[in-house]
Amino acid sequence: MSKAIKKSPWVVHFNCNSCNGCDIEFLACLTPTYDVERFGVLHVGNPKHADVLVVTGSVNNRNKHVLKNVYDQMPEPKVVVAMGACPATGGIFADCYNVIGGVNKVIPVDVHVPGCPPKPEAMMDGIIEAVGILEKKRKGETVDAPVLPVKVVKGPEAPPMTPEMQAKIAAAKAAAAAKAAAAKAAAENQPEAKAE
Amino acid sequence: MESLQKIISNPWVYAALVVVLTPFAGALLTSIDRKLTARMQGRIGPSWFQPLYDVAKLFSKNPMALHRPQLIYATLHLVFMVVAVVLLALGCDLLMVLFVQAFSMICLVLGGMSVRSPYSWIGSQRKIMQMLGVEPVFLVMILALYLRNGSFLGSGLFSKAEPLLLSMPLMFLAFLCAIAIEMEKSPFDLSSSHHAHQEIVKGVTLEYSGPFLGLIEIAHFYEFAFFFGLMMAFWHTNIIIGLIVAFAGLVFMTVLDNSFARLTPNWMLRFMWTVPLSMALANLIWLWVK
């Protein structure tokens, strides 16, 4: 049985707003040059038939629910492979307002494959690594979460404010307060004007 | 040696042997099919034991089902397919074999219809269309066999010394088209397909997972061996030539699968009720006149 699970990993591939670079490279694994089917890997379109979930792209707030749904539909034992830089940290999209930055913030990841995009060889290596973890999970052994192969890099901080900018902001605030007070006074005076 | 022959000729022992050995034969045929497909695409392809690994893996997954009827339909699909294979192997009534095999397909359709997934529903509806296309050809074939052998019994196949293919060549071609539909080969792979990311994903078997998908896979092995055996029966006088005929049929289906895109259900029905059915009927009339 444990030999069988190692010999037939069926893969479902989910694209969380990837730029399609990783996806094309991943599909290239099926071509005659790489032929991932010789390891028994089948590319299935249905999470209910799959053992390995391959995620590409930086996850965002819109598709994190879909990702969770796909993950929940897979029968145990299952593993998740984060393919590329984006699903590890958000990649070059890490600073976008909608990007969560990392699959492991939504579902537990077992293997990270670094690269933008990773080479097909690296992808196959990642799948084979995942198959080993799949067998461990079937036996009921605990599997540690992997250490991220890259540092999370954020964009540069905003520059500190100069005294002139601070003075400008203070003046603007004072002007706004004065305007508000004037408007309030006008509103208070209005009923008297009407009474006259 | 003689005592061994005596044991095997006991119908119970024979039936048990058929039940045990047929799925392995079906798995071997499936891996030949996958290997051939891979070689045609210039790939190495999976190992020879791949179908067995796949089924063993499916049975090691945690069971996950939507509801109980789904499991009953998957089991019945397998059971009726096994019964059809055993009935054929024991040389029983061919009409009975046909009906039991059709009922096995009906169970698959009911299983697909019992869930709410739209893909599963579309797959089931297409499976019914496929059965509509295939069953008349099978029926005409059995009528032709009756005309030739004077019996509906499967054992009557061996009553004549002349091979079947020589008196039923057109029927064999029509039968090949019918098998291509039953085996889900392009351009007829409408209700479920072996390849990912197609219009209705996995069709009828979409909502099955783990061990229950494994049951359907085993039923598929039986089905493959069943149709391979029927192709061999077209040259029953010599087992080597019979194997060659059946293998040629298998290669033909693999070529068909790799060189055609999927077509629509309506096209399939129109095709099956014109070309193969008229070929089968022409063969029937010829046997009648002769």
From the helix content, strand content and strand pairing of chain A, which structural class follows? alpha/beta
Describe the main β-sheet of chain A briefly. 5 strands, parallel
Report the average pLDDT across residues of chain A. 84
Quick one: overall form of chain B? globular
- Alpha plus pi helix count of chain B: 11
Q: In CATH terms, what is the fold-level topology of the largest domain in chain A?
A: Rossmann fold
What summary fits the major beta sheet of chain B?
A: none
Order of helices and strands of chain A: HEHEEHEHEHH
Protein architecture, described:
- The complex is a heterodimer of chains A (196) and B (290).
- Chain A has a 5-stranded parallel beta sheet, sandwiched between helices.
- In chain A, 41% of the residues lie in helices and 11% in strands.
- Chain A folds into 2 domains: 2-139, Rossmann fold (3-Layer(aba) Sandwich); 158-196.
- Chain A is α/β, with parallel strands linked by helices and 196 residues long.
- Chain B is mainly α and 290 residues long.
- Chain B has one domain (2-289).
- In chain B, helix 2 (11-40) packs across helix 4 (68-89) and helix 5 (94-113) packs antiparallel against helix 6.
- The longest helix of chain B is centred in the middle third of the chain and has 32 residues, at 118-149.
- The radius of gyration of chain B is 19 Å and the shape is globular.
- The mean pLDDT of chain B is 87.
- Classes of the chains: A alpha/beta (196), B mainly alpha (290).
- The A-B interface holds A 1-5, 7-8, 31-32, 35, 37-38, 40, 42-46, 48-49, 51, 75-77, 138 and B 38, 41-47, 49-50, 52-54, 56-57, 59-64, 195-198, 201-202, 206-210, 213.
